[in-house]
Amino acid sequence: MVIHQNFIGGNISVKEIDGDTVILENELRDTTGDWFYWAFCVEGAENRTLTFRFQPSRLGYFGPAVSYDLENWHWLHHVEGDSFTYTFCAEESKVYFAHSMLYHPSRFMNFADKHHLQVEELCKGYKGSSIPCIKFGEGNTSIILTARHHACESTGNYVLEGVLEELLADPIPDATVFCVPFVDFEGVIRGDQGKNRAPHDQNRDYATEKEAIYPECNAIKEYAEAHGCHYGFDFHAPWHKGGQNDTVFIVQNRIEQLDLLNKFGSLLEKTISADSLKYEHKNDYPPETGWNIPNAQFANYMATRAENVVAFTLETTYFGTPDNEVSIDKLIELGRCFAKTFKKYNETEQPL
Ligand SMILES: [Zn+2]
Q1: From the CA of 199, how far away is ligand 1's center (Å)?
Q2: What residue spans in the chain does CATH classification 3.40.630.10 cover?
Q3: Distance from Cα 174 to the centre of ligand 1, integer Å
Protein backbone atom coordinates (compact mmCIF):
# COMPACT_ATOMS: atom_id res chain seq x y z
CA MET A 1 0.00 0.00 0.00
CA VAL A 2 1.21 3.52 -0.82
CA ILE A 3 -0.17 6.76 0.63
CA HIS A 4 1.11 9.76 -1.29
CA GLN A 5 0.60 13.36 -2.36
CA ASN A 6 2.05 13.04 -5.89
CA PHE A 7 -0.78 14.67 -7.82
CA ILE A 8 -2.15 18.14 -8.50
CA GLY A 9 -3.37 19.47 -5.16
CA GLY A 10 -1.73 16.74 -3.04
CA ASN A 11 -0.86 17.62 0.57
CA ILE A 12 -0.18 15.03 3.27
CA SER A 13 2.44 13.82 5.71
CA VAL A 14 2.19 10.20 6.90
CA LYS A 15 3.32 10.16 10.53
CA GLU A 16 2.78 6.53 11.41
CA ILE A 17 1.11 3.37 10.15
CA ASP A 18 0.05 1.10 13.00
CA GLY A 19 -1.72 -1.98 11.66
CA ASP A 20 -4.85 -0.69 9.97
CA THR A 21 -4.59 2.78 11.49
CA VAL A 22 -2.82 5.55 9.60
CA ILE A 23 -1.79 8.69 11.48
CA LEU A 24 -1.71 11.71 9.18
CA GLU A 25 -0.94 15.40 9.36
CA ASN A 26 -1.42 18.06 6.73
CA GLU A 27 1.51 20.18 5.61
CA LEU A 28 1.32 23.87 6.46
CA ARG A 29 4.42 24.71 4.38
CA ASP A 30 4.81 28.51 4.38
CA THR A 31 1.45 29.21 6.03
CA THR A 32 1.82 31.03 9.32
CA GLY A 33 -0.49 29.77 12.07
CA ASP A 34 -2.78 26.80 11.61
CA TRP A 35 -4.83 25.78 8.53
CA PHE A 36 -6.75 22.67 7.56
CA TYR A 37 -6.28 21.70 3.91
CA TRP A 38 -5.10 18.20 2.94
CA ALA A 39 -5.50 15.77 0.04
CA PHE A 40 -3.94 12.33 -0.44
CA CYS A 41 -4.07 9.24 -2.60
CA VAL A 42 -4.13 5.61 -1.42
CA GLU A 43 -2.97 2.94 -3.86
CA GLY A 44 -2.83 -0.81 -3.38
CA ALA A 45 -5.21 -1.08 -0.41
CA GLU A 46 -7.78 -3.31 -2.11
CA ASN A 47 -9.88 -5.40 0.30
CA ARG A 48 -8.51 -3.59 3.37
CA THR A 49 -10.35 -1.50 5.95
CA LEU A 50 -8.22 1.39 7.16
CA THR A 51 -8.75 4.14 9.71
CA PHE A 52 -7.18 7.52 8.95
CA ARG A 53 -6.58 9.77 11.92
CA PHE A 54 -5.78 13.50 11.78
CA GLN A 55 -4.99 16.38 14.08
CA PRO A 56 -8.11 18.19 15.36
CA SER A 57 -10.13 20.37 12.93
CA ARG A 58 -9.21 18.65 9.70
CA LEU A 59 -12.44 16.81 8.83
CA GLY A 60 -15.73 18.24 7.69
CA TYR A 61 -19.26 17.28 8.70
CA PHE A 62 -19.59 14.62 6.04
CA GLY A 63 -16.12 13.09 6.34
CA PRO A 64 -13.64 13.35 3.47
CA ALA A 65 -14.46 14.13 -0.14
CA VAL A 66 -13.73 10.95 -2.14
CA SER A 67 -12.75 10.62 -5.80
CA TYR A 68 -11.32 8.04 -8.21
CA ASP A 69 -10.33 10.49 -10.93
CA LEU A 70 -9.78 13.91 -9.23
CA GLU A 71 -12.79 15.16 -11.19
CA ASN A 72 -15.90 13.58 -9.70
CA TRP A 73 -16.21 13.95 -5.91
CA HIS A 74 -18.65 12.72 -3.29
CA TRP A 75 -18.71 12.85 0.49
CA LEU A 76 -17.94 9.67 2.36
CA HIS A 77 -20.76 10.57 4.78
CA HIS A 78 -18.91 8.91 7.61
CA VAL A 79 -16.69 10.51 10.22
CA GLU A 80 -15.78 9.80 13.83
CA GLY A 81 -14.20 12.80 15.54
CA ASP A 82 -10.79 13.29 13.94
CA SER A 83 -10.86 9.95 12.10
CA PHE A 84 -12.60 8.25 9.23
CA THR A 85 -12.62 4.60 8.25
CA TYR A 86 -12.73 3.36 4.69
CA THR A 87 -13.21 -0.11 3.28
CA PHE A 88 -11.50 -0.47 -0.08
CA CYS A 89 -13.33 -2.93 -2.29
CA ALA A 90 -11.53 -5.29 -4.66
CA GLU A 91 -11.67 -2.83 -7.57
CA GLU A 92 -10.49 0.22 -5.65
CA SER A 93 -6.81 0.22 -6.49
CA LYS A 94 -6.54 4.02 -6.33
CA VAL A 95 -8.70 6.34 -4.20
CA TYR A 96 -8.26 10.05 -3.51
CA PHE A 97 -9.40 11.63 -0.25
CA ALA A 98 -9.50 15.34 0.46
CA HIS A 99 -10.64 17.93 2.96
CA SER A 100 -13.20 19.16 0.43
CA MET A 101 -14.10 18.76 -3.24
CA LEU A 102 -11.00 19.70 -5.22
CA TYR A 103 -11.22 21.58 -8.51
CA HIS A 104 -8.61 20.29 -10.92
CA PRO A 105 -7.17 22.87 -13.35
CA SER A 106 -7.86 20.44 -16.22
CA ARG A 107 -11.56 20.84 -15.46
CA PHE A 108 -11.24 24.53 -16.25
CA MET A 109 -9.28 23.80 -19.45
CA ASN A 110 -12.06 21.42 -20.55
CA PHE A 111 -14.66 24.06 -19.71
CA ALA A 112 -12.78 26.61 -21.83
CA ASP A 113 -12.51 24.12 -24.73
CA LYS A 114 -16.21 23.33 -24.57
CA HIS A 115 -17.06 27.03 -24.79
CA HIS A 116 -14.41 27.80 -27.43
CA LEU A 117 -12.56 30.13 -25.10
CA GLN A 118 -8.88 30.62 -25.62
CA VAL A 119 -6.85 30.14 -22.46
CA GLU A 120 -4.06 32.71 -22.47
CA GLU A 121 -1.08 33.31 -20.24
CA LEU A 122 -1.61 36.08 -17.70
CA CYS A 123 2.09 36.01 -16.76
CA LYS A 124 4.66 33.64 -15.38
CA GLY A 125 3.85 32.78 -11.79
CA TYR A 126 6.15 33.34 -8.83
CA LYS A 127 7.63 29.90 -9.40
CA GLY A 128 7.71 30.13 -13.20
CA SER A 129 4.46 28.38 -14.20
CA SER A 130 2.22 29.78 -16.90
CA ILE A 131 -0.77 31.40 -15.14
CA PRO A 132 -3.98 30.88 -17.14
CA CYS A 133 -6.59 33.53 -17.87
CA ILE A 134 -9.48 33.98 -20.28
CA LYS A 135 -11.22 36.96 -21.80
CA PHE A 136 -14.52 37.19 -23.66
CA GLY A 137 -17.03 39.78 -24.77
CA GLU A 138 -16.21 43.23 -26.06
CA GLY A 139 -17.36 46.49 -24.57
CA ASN A 140 -16.95 49.43 -22.25
CA THR A 141 -17.97 47.70 -19.02
CA SER A 142 -15.02 45.87 -17.52
CA ILE A 143 -15.78 42.84 -15.36
CA ILE A 144 -12.94 41.07 -13.54
CA LEU A 145 -13.57 37.64 -12.03
CA THR A 146 -11.03 35.78 -9.92
CA ALA A 147 -10.72 32.71 -7.71
CA ARG A 148 -8.01 30.94 -5.73
CA HIS A 149 -6.24 33.96 -4.31
CA HIS A 150 -6.03 31.38 -1.54
CA ALA A 151 -4.84 28.14 -3.07
CA CYS A 152 -6.94 25.68 -1.06
CA GLU A 153 -10.32 27.37 -1.60
CA SER A 154 -11.69 25.16 -4.36
CA THR A 155 -15.41 25.81 -3.82
CA GLY A 156 -14.82 29.26 -5.34
CA ASN A 157 -13.83 27.67 -8.66
CA TYR A 158 -17.09 25.76 -9.01
CA VAL A 159 -19.08 28.92 -8.30
CA LEU A 160 -16.94 30.82 -10.80
CA GLU A 161 -17.56 28.14 -13.43
CA GLY A 162 -21.33 28.65 -13.01
CA VAL A 163 -20.91 32.42 -13.28
CA LEU A 164 -18.95 32.05 -16.53
CA GLU A 165 -21.42 29.56 -17.96
CA GLU A 166 -24.31 31.96 -17.39
CA LEU A 167 -22.44 35.00 -18.73
CA LEU A 168 -21.53 33.03 -21.87
CA ALA A 169 -25.09 31.75 -22.37
CA ASP A 170 -26.69 35.17 -21.89
CA PRO A 171 -24.01 37.85 -22.24
CA ILE A 172 -24.10 41.30 -20.71
CA PRO A 173 -24.22 43.85 -23.54
CA ASP A 174 -21.19 46.08 -24.05
CA ALA A 175 -19.06 44.24 -21.51
CA THR A 176 -15.65 42.61 -21.44
CA VAL A 177 -15.14 39.75 -19.01
CA PHE A 178 -11.61 39.01 -17.82
CA CYS A 179 -11.13 35.97 -15.61
CA VAL A 180 -8.17 34.58 -13.69
CA PRO A 181 -9.50 31.27 -12.33
CA PHE A 182 -6.42 30.31 -10.28
CA VAL A 183 -4.60 33.40 -9.05
CA ASP A 184 -2.31 31.30 -6.84
CA PHE A 185 -1.95 28.65 -9.55
CA GLU A 186 1.48 27.74 -8.16
CA GLY A 187 -0.12 26.87 -4.82
CA VAL A 188 -3.10 25.10 -6.42
CA ILE A 189 -0.91 22.66 -8.34
CA ARG A 190 1.37 22.03 -5.33
CA GLY A 191 -1.50 21.56 -2.88
CA ASP A 192 -0.49 24.47 -0.66
CA GLN A 193 -2.76 25.96 1.96
CA GLY A 194 -2.04 29.35 0.35
CA LYS A 195 -3.88 31.19 3.11
CA ASN A 196 -1.66 33.31 5.37
CA ARG A 197 1.52 32.65 3.44
CA ALA A 198 4.58 34.38 4.82
CA PRO A 199 5.20 37.28 4.45
CA HIS A 200 1.66 37.74 3.13
CA ASP A 201 -0.66 35.83 0.84
CA GLN A 202 -1.98 36.75 -2.62
CA ASN A 203 -5.10 38.38 -1.24
CA ARG A 204 -3.03 40.80 0.83
CA ASP A 205 -0.91 41.82 -2.14
CA TYR A 206 -3.02 44.63 -3.64
CA ALA A 207 -1.63 47.67 -1.90
CA THR A 208 -2.25 50.71 -4.10
CA GLU A 209 1.00 52.43 -3.19
CA LYS A 210 3.45 49.62 -3.94
CA GLU A 211 4.27 46.75 -6.28
CA ALA A 212 2.84 43.36 -5.47
CA ILE A 213 5.31 40.63 -4.48
CA TYR A 214 3.46 38.06 -6.62
CA PRO A 215 3.65 38.72 -10.39
CA GLU A 216 0.08 37.33 -10.72
CA CYS A 217 -1.28 40.16 -8.57
CA ASN A 218 0.75 42.77 -10.42
CA ALA A 219 -0.60 41.48 -13.74
CA ILE A 220 -4.19 41.75 -12.46
CA LYS A 221 -3.54 45.27 -11.17
CA GLU A 222 -2.04 46.21 -14.55
CA TYR A 223 -5.11 44.83 -16.35
CA ALA A 224 -7.35 46.98 -14.12
CA GLU A 225 -5.15 50.00 -14.81
CA ALA A 226 -5.40 49.47 -18.56
CA HIS A 227 -9.08 48.48 -18.85
CA GLY A 228 -10.70 49.63 -15.60
CA CYS A 229 -12.76 47.44 -13.29
CA HIS A 230 -16.43 48.42 -13.10
CA TYR A 231 -17.26 45.14 -11.40
CA GLY A 232 -14.84 42.87 -9.56
CA PHE A 233 -15.88 39.60 -7.99
CA ASP A 234 -13.49 37.33 -6.13
CA PHE A 235 -14.63 33.81 -5.21
CA HIS A 236 -13.33 32.30 -1.98
CA ALA A 237 -14.11 29.75 0.70
CA PRO A 238 -14.18 30.78 4.37
CA TRP A 239 -12.58 29.05 7.35
CA HIS A 240 -12.94 25.27 7.84
CA LYS A 241 -16.41 25.04 9.45
CA GLY A 242 -18.83 26.28 12.10
CA GLY A 243 -21.26 29.20 12.28
CA GLN A 244 -21.04 31.56 9.35
CA ASN A 245 -18.40 29.31 7.75
CA ASP A 246 -21.19 26.84 6.98
CA THR A 247 -22.96 29.36 4.76
CA VAL A 248 -22.51 31.41 1.59
CA PHE A 249 -21.91 35.09 2.30
CA ILE A 250 -20.84 38.35 0.74
CA VAL A 251 -18.01 40.14 2.50
CA GLN A 252 -19.34 43.70 2.60
CA ASN A 253 -15.98 45.38 2.31
CA ARG A 254 -16.80 49.05 1.77
CA ILE A 255 -19.06 51.06 4.03
CA GLU A 256 -19.40 53.53 1.11
CA GLN A 257 -20.93 50.77 -1.03
CA LEU A 258 -23.14 49.32 1.68
CA ASP A 259 -26.44 50.25 -0.04
CA LEU A 260 -25.31 48.61 -3.25
CA LEU A 261 -24.03 45.55 -1.40
CA ASN A 262 -27.34 45.17 0.45
CA LYS A 263 -29.29 45.48 -2.80
CA PHE A 264 -27.08 42.86 -4.41
CA GLY A 265 -27.55 40.53 -1.42
CA SER A 266 -31.36 40.90 -1.39
CA LEU A 267 -31.49 40.31 -5.12
CA LEU A 268 -29.22 37.26 -4.88
CA GLU A 269 -31.41 35.70 -2.19
CA LYS A 270 -34.47 36.13 -4.42
CA THR A 271 -32.65 34.71 -7.43
CA ILE A 272 -31.37 31.53 -5.76
CA SER A 273 -33.02 28.51 -7.39
CA ALA A 274 -34.12 25.25 -5.77
CA ASP A 275 -31.07 23.46 -7.26
CA SER A 276 -28.55 25.92 -5.85
CA LEU A 277 -26.64 25.86 -2.61
CA LYS A 278 -28.68 28.16 -0.40
CA TYR A 279 -27.73 31.75 0.29
CA GLU A 280 -29.35 34.17 2.74
CA HIS A 281 -28.59 37.88 2.73
CA LYS A 282 -28.69 37.98 6.54
CA ASN A 283 -25.44 35.96 6.61
CA ASP A 284 -23.47 38.66 4.78
CA TYR A 285 -20.50 39.96 6.73
CA PRO A 286 -20.96 43.64 7.66
CA PRO A 287 -18.13 46.07 6.93
CA GLU A 288 -15.53 47.04 9.49
CA THR A 289 -16.41 44.33 11.99
CA GLY A 290 -14.42 41.28 13.15
CA TRP A 291 -11.84 40.31 10.53
CA ASN A 292 -13.58 42.39 7.86
CA ILE A 293 -11.24 45.37 7.87
CA PRO A 294 -10.30 46.99 4.53
CA ASN A 295 -6.84 45.76 3.67
CA ALA A 296 -4.76 45.11 0.57
CA GLN A 297 -7.30 42.58 -0.80
CA PHE A 298 -8.26 42.26 -4.46
CA ALA A 299 -11.86 43.35 -3.71
CA ASN A 300 -10.78 46.39 -1.74
CA TYR A 301 -8.28 47.44 -4.40
CA MET A 302 -10.93 47.20 -7.12
CA ALA A 303 -13.69 48.80 -5.01
CA THR A 304 -11.58 51.89 -4.38
CA ARG A 305 -10.85 52.48 -8.06
CA ALA A 306 -12.60 55.60 -9.41
CA GLU A 307 -14.62 53.79 -12.08
CA ASN A 308 -15.71 50.89 -9.87
CA VAL A 309 -19.43 50.34 -9.24
CA VAL A 310 -19.03 47.42 -6.89
CA ALA A 311 -16.41 44.83 -6.00
CA PHE A 312 -16.51 42.18 -3.31
CA THR A 313 -15.60 38.69 -2.18
CA LEU A 314 -18.15 35.88 -2.15
CA GLU A 315 -17.33 33.22 0.44
CA THR A 316 -18.75 29.76 -0.20
CA THR A 317 -18.69 27.10 2.51
CA TYR A 318 -16.68 23.89 1.98
CA PHE A 319 -19.36 21.60 3.42
CA GLY A 320 -22.62 23.42 4.14
CA THR A 321 -25.00 21.79 6.62
CA PRO A 322 -27.11 18.61 6.52
CA ASP A 323 -30.06 20.59 5.11
CA ASN A 324 -27.84 22.45 2.63
CA GLU A 325 -25.04 20.09 1.70
CA VAL A 326 -22.35 21.15 -0.75
CA SER A 327 -22.20 19.31 -4.07
CA ILE A 328 -20.51 20.22 -7.34
CA ASP A 329 -23.87 20.72 -9.07
CA LYS A 330 -25.17 23.02 -6.33
CA LEU A 331 -22.00 25.12 -6.38
CA ILE A 332 -22.21 25.58 -10.14
CA GLU A 333 -25.90 26.49 -9.92
CA LEU A 334 -25.02 29.03 -7.19
CA GLY A 335 -22.65 30.59 -9.71
CA ARG A 336 -25.38 30.74 -12.38
CA CYS A 337 -27.73 32.41 -9.88
CA PHE A 338 -24.97 34.85 -8.95
CA ALA A 339 -24.50 35.83 -12.61
CA LYS A 340 -28.27 36.23 -13.12
CA THR A 341 -28.36 38.47 -10.06
CA PHE A 342 -25.48 40.50 -11.40
CA LYS A 343 -27.29 40.98 -14.72
CA LYS A 344 -30.50 42.11 -12.98
CA TYR A 345 -28.51 44.38 -10.73
CA ASN A 346 -26.65 45.87 -13.66
CA GLU A 347 -29.92 46.52 -15.50
CA THR A 348 -31.96 47.93 -12.64
CA GLU A 349 -29.61 49.53 -10.15
CA GLN A 350 -26.59 50.89 -11.87
CA PRO A 351 -27.00 51.18 -15.62
CA LEU A 352 -23.70 52.24 -17.10
ZN1 LIG B 1 -9.89 33.20 0.85
Answers
A1: 16
A2: 105-348
A3: 30
